[in-house]
Automatic annotation (TrEMBL):
Membrane topology listed for this record: Single-pass membrane protein
Subcellular location: Membrane
Annotated Gene Ontology cellular component terms: membrane
Extent of the signal sequence: none
Keywords: Glycoprotein, Membrane, Signal, Transmembrane, Transmembrane helix
InterPro entries: APRL4/6 (IPR044606)
Domain of life: Eukaryota
Transmembrane segments: 48-76
The protein's name in its UniProt record: 5-adenylylsulfate reductase-like protein
Amino acid sequence: IRIDSLDQLSLEKIGRPSANENHGDTEPESCPFSWARSPENLLRQETYLALATAFVVLRLLYLFFPTLLVCIQYAWRRVIQNVRLWSLLEHPLVYLKRIIQSVYRLKEPCKRSNLQEGAMNARAWASKSLATVSIGEESTSRAIHQ
């Protein structure tokens, strides 16, 4: 066996497709609907149909793009006119005020509790004074009206 003949034989085998390999590229798809085929096979088998479709899509885009652009610009102008600078700053300012309030609450918790205690004391004082007024003598304003 010569090495030159082996090399020549192996090169021929590599260059030729074997009978076991199945190449779906060369045979047409058996799908009855042209729109259901893969885009590669559709482009390969129905080149004119693919080119005509691309032409129609590009032509429609060419015709409707200026109108679409004008509509988008009009809508954008209306949005910009309605948006004020202050409305853009409102939400961050509200959040900032809330943060500042929470910091103050954390800073002075005893002051808040003193206020609550004062409110409880005021309630107790008011209930005591009302009790003494109702138990005590008749007031002078009542005696005058009778």
